[in-house]
Amino acid sequence: MKRIISALLASLFISGVALASDESLEKVRSQKEVVVGFCAQYPPFESKNLETGAFEGFDVDLARALAKEMGVSVRFVDAEWQGLLGGLGKGDFDMLLTCMSKSEARHANANFSNVYYRLADVIVVSTKNTDIKGLADLSDKTVGVQVGSGSEQLADGMKERFKSLKRYNYNPEAFADLKFGRIDAVLVGITYALRQNKVDSSFKVVGAPLAEAEIVAVMKKGADTLTGEVNAALGRLKASGEYAAIHDRWLAM
């Protein structure tokens, strides 16, 4: 009996130490702000307004609303997409809110929030193109994708269907090549594709959506208290209707 009691006490002690070591939420509360990392080159989720220089987009408004629910302010840090997960690991950010999918962050040592958006990947071609109507028509074509994106992971899984796959640091570079005929198609999230079409009507979406990505906020592994608080705040925003208002402001199709 004594051994059982000792084992239980030891277990409680270890659990208490583990719990106490997670200071992720306490850090945010003590500094009175949550530091959000993103790459502001992916409208309508996040971008920089060329006239005002201010950050804007769905993730921007959602981060502000989450921070308000948590009783803190928010500070945005614009960083290179490829460096976001590394920066999170080093402690540069408290969380990433940057249209990042579970699959994009799956190799990182990280916590995920509940899914806050489901994003379909689609095929985009020039409006001049009459040959490509769907995935089956890409067999002899060159397809572009952004490096490190869920679209790249999707394309890697089906690259035997293409003539070749060209990788770009950012989607605008891929769309520029598409416009000038240097590639035949781009795989990208549908919200970006539709936003791009509003800016430049020389593009069109063809075929059925290829896949659906689960978009999440990403925290450092073990940041369980902060993850729980973000999930609770997200739940309240959905219940109040504020999430729907933010969604409709930026992502209504």
From TrEMBL:
N-terminal signal peptide: 1-20
Keyword Cell membrane listed: no
Residues in Solute-binding protein family 3/N-terminal domain copies: 33-253
Name of the protein described by the UniProt record: Solute-binding protein family 3/n-terminal domain of mltf
GO cellular component: cell envelope; membrane
Domain Ionotropic glutamate receptor C-terminal: 33-253
Species assigned in the record: Desulfoluna butyratoxydans
InterPro entries associated with the record: Iontro_rcpt_C, SBP_3_CS, Solute-binding_3/MltF_N
PANTHER family assigned: ABC TRANSPORTER EXTRACELLULAR-BINDING PROTEIN YCKB-RELATED, MEMBRANE-BOUND LYTIC MUREIN TRANSGLYCOSYLASE F
A molecular function (GO) term: ligand-gated monoatomic ion channel activity
Keyword annotations of the record: Signal
Subcellular location(s) per record: Cell envelope
The UniProt record lists the keyword Signal: yes
Name of a matching Pfam family: SBP_bac_3
Highest taxon, organism lineage: Bacteria
Family membership noted in the UniProt record: Belongs to the bacterial solute-binding protein 3 family.
PROSITE patterns for the chain: SBP_BACTERIAL_3
